Hints:
InterPro entries: Aldolase_TIM, DUS-like_FMN-bd, DusB-like, tRNA-dHydroUridine_Synthase_C, tRNA_hU_synthase_CS. By secondary structure, this protein is α/β, with parallel strands linked by helices.
Amino acid sequence: MSNTSETILTAPHETDNLDPRTDAQAGLPDGPVTIAPVRLGHITVPTPVVLSPMAGVTNWPFRVICEEYGPDGLYVAEMITARALVARNPKALRLCHFAPSEKIRSLQLYGVNPSIVEQAAKIVVDEGMADHVDLNFGCPVPKVTRRGGGSALPWKTDIFTDLIHRVVAVCDPAGIPVTAKIRVGIDHAHETFLEAGRIAQEEGCAAVTLHARTTAEYYGGHSDWSRIGELKEHLDIPVFGNGDIWGAEDALAMVRETGCDGVAIGRGCQGRPWLFANIKNAFAGNPERLNPNLGEVCRVIRRHAELLTEFYDGDETMAVHDLRKHIAWYLKGFPVGGSTRKAFMECESLADVDREIGRLDPGIEYPPRVVDKPRGRVRFAKKVHLPYGWLESRTTTHEERETLFGDDPMDASY
């Protein structure tokens, strides 16, 4: 189906992948799993565990909390829209901030126009904003893909190649490694990951992260880890695996199954930044796992609120509003009642948060039923939205580029 402005895929969902934690994987060898440090240009990542960038989640307050729990890995800032950075949008600039404690300043850029992303990368380099730049070719959200961005972009090999080439040309002389985040493809009839990985490698990317789902699969079903193994065999540069790592044992299983060089954690750490402590222990061969009681969780909530207040320059209202989604994740599974959850959602200040924390029983143990279980709703894409005629060719015409790269004010705002 299509209309005059976009192409819409409505093919049925194709996921039939088994949960990698089921008996379907019983034939895999068991035992210790180790991962070696990964070199990204001049940067060494001692333990290649990545906090994946998540919009509205991985600002520096959350990154700091995750890094305090976890290993010396990569903790990536949430996606920065290139056009917004070039336009000096205040929110985009705020998202480019890093805390002094962050060991590797890792920033992700998103864009469709290679020239604009190149300009954004030049700002990052010239103003010393980051030590590492990741490029987003994995986002499946319709408002991104309908403009040819995110996981739709690798289909157009000319734009994909040009964009990576330009960013690497800007970053490489400054010693800033560039990596790429991709998906398997638009759907299983339009897979791009092997070709995209090869292009990224040829154009100078230091590593590639694969979220082992298609755009059509969105966040539904189970990611197909076998595709991570395929990409690893296909490339010489490091490959990071992403998708359905809900607990430390999942991280071990992904490395064991795929041979990937590192793991990237997204939704699994929402409301449980201590997942990074468990993964750190797992790769060190330490059986200890942290499942904090409600008192410890409340301590993390309070610290998160304080850091968000600093992030918003002392504005407690903005900080507490930002915290609300995190509180829902932090309290998931705890028997605190709907009225308590509602009260937290109505907080307007740190004092309000303190009041609600004071009403909770700190001795309540972490609920076993949510240990290492999926976070958030399992969502399937009902439709894949793409620019009109997007799938008709692997390259773009001059007219298509003019349409894609037109001045879109939405691209410069948040």
